[in-house]
Amino acid sequence: MLRSRCTLRVATRRISNSRNSPNGRTRRDFGNFQTGQQLERNGAKRGKTKTTMTNRRKTEWKVVAARVTGVLVILVGALLAARICVANQPGDHPIPSIFDPRSTPADMIKQHSHFVLTITGLIFLVVFTLLAYTILKFRQTTANADREPAQVYGSNQIELAWTIIPILIVVVLFLAVARVIHAVQDAPEPATAVEVTAIGHQFWWEYRYPALGVVTANELHVPVSDPTHPTPTFFKLLSADTDHSFWVPQLAGKTDLIPNRVNQMWIDPHETGLFLGQCAQYCGTQHAKMLLRVYVDSPEEFAAWVRAQRQPANQDEKEAAGRHVFQTTACLNCHAVGGTNGTGRFGPDLTHLMSRSTIAAGAAENTPERLRLWIQNPDAIKPGSLMPAMKLSDADLDALVRYLETLR
Questions:
Q1: What does the DSSP 8-state code read for residue 395?
Q2: Same domain for 368 and 336
Q3: CATH at 301
Q4: What is the tens place of the pLDDT at every residue in 358-398?
Q5: CA-to-CA distance for 372 and 330, rounded, in angstroms?
Q6: Using one digit for the tens of pLDDT, what is the confidence trace for 163-187?
Q7: Confidence class of residue 278 from pLDDT cuts 50, 70 and 90?
Q8: Are 208 and 238 in contact (CB under 8 A)?
Q9: Which of 385, 378, 220, 375 is nearest to 290 (CA)?
Q10: Are residues 394 and 298 in the same domain?
């Protein structure tokens, strides 16, 4: 009886499981079926996740590569810029370089520049190294995308370091600059020095040698300074109108010419040759063509130049017609020619005009053709200059040019 009851219960249980399961399968069989599907779905998800991680890693490395490439481009550009500043012989490069000094003040500036560039280069190297290490070491990846980096809420050591180190760097740079400024500005003037008064005009230079009795324009002549017998040139800098700046990179640093103020500077060129400069302070429309030409002569050549500049203007009677044009037109209101009634101070002294290699403050070569064009239409050479067009007839213009050619 008991066995019959147990058999009946087992049969009833099987029938119940069969009715509650699809396709007549048991719950255990159905559970096994669902587990297989889940495995397939999980496998697909793992494949997608793996592909996504691979793509993200590729993207991350592309970003890193792009940043590194950008930094390398900046470094290459800096190196190319430095290459331009490499020392060149005078005349070898159209751009005068402060890294090619030919005078004591310029050499001091070069040495100071190297010192400053060394310090700033070391700072750049340290900062760039730390930055590159941080970018590569602690960049965001899929493994830490949902995790916040470790937070630092104050460090006395770090704060002291980034406060004290910059202060020390600034103090060192300040002392180095003060030493150079003192050495250049407070240099004593020896008895053998040549004194020059340089006056800035819009847009040309006037040079006066008070002790030598010489007045010229745009092209400066100074003697070379032999270390055994130093002959430096000391300048008194004035301005007739607005702010200018006297700058010959290979001979000295910039010094401003300011109205109603007297500034000073000096040079002692160590070798002969032509040194180019520029007005380094915007002074008007033709600021870019207010050029400087400094001829450093040997002692004999400088003495010969001074003797020639002291001579009166040539009075060639063959060019009396051109001299008459000069003396009866507006030319004499602005220009001076020794031995004539022309005593103007608004324009360059023309007593020895043809001894100069350029006109219009270095904007054009001093040839008869360019001189004729300069008188006839100044804007064709130097637009915006204060030189007026004379509106002369062809005959008067030709006569005037022939006369000016005799002023040597």
A1: H
A2: yes
A3: 2.60.40.420
A4: 999 999 999 999 999 999 999 999 998 888 888 889 999 99
A5: 16
A6: 999 999 999 999 999 999 999 999 9
A7: very high
A8: no
A9: 385
A10: no
